[in-house]
Amino acid sequence: MATIDLLYFAWVREGIGTGSETVEPPPEVATVSGLIDWLSGRGAAYATTFADRTRLRAAVDQRFVPMDAPIIGAREVAIFPPVTGG
Amino acid sequence: MSISVQQAPINLAAELAAVGEAGAVATFIGHVRADDGVTGLTLEHYPGATEAALAALVDEARQRWRVSNARIVHRVGAMRPGEAIVFVAAAARYRHAALEACAFLIDRLKTDAPFWKQEMRGETSRWVEPRATDADAAARWTR
Description:
The complex is a heterodimer of chains A (86) and B (143). Chain A has 86 residues and is α+β, with helices and mostly antiparallel strands.
């Protein structure tokens, strides 16, 4: 099974306690939301940070995607709050 | 390069000069506001994805309004109230194209580019929440 580099930004990064990590999810984890479900089962920090899905956005290999986007073959998945630049 | 994501303060005079000669040049400068006692602002971003998002916006502006030049400079890291956080410029033959392209770039930057603002008030910090009006402003450019 392939590994995926995860990136977290802003309060998601603070909540998880790291800006990046490499994970190896099981094959049945096929979408961004599936990945977040799987991560939420790994510990309280994940479950708490990912509790309100409406406040989360994601990118797969640096492209912004909806939560039901596939992650099969992805090398990098980023999870973050809605953006607030400018 | 028509985009820059940088820690350093924005040199407005140099940026404006670099836009070059054109019949019409429109610019937008966003400053850090001292809203309700804000003493500082820290900008986080997604390296790589940020630059790609800004470059895509500049490309789209070039195609839609046939601007002769367009530039986005956005700061990251720590800054203080009153400092420029973003500079946008669009140059074209006539004013309508320059003004519209400039407005498009800043409106869409706010929803498309992965930046996150954290406000400091003395010792306490708070992540800024997105505003619905920003999404509305960006949506008006959807074709």
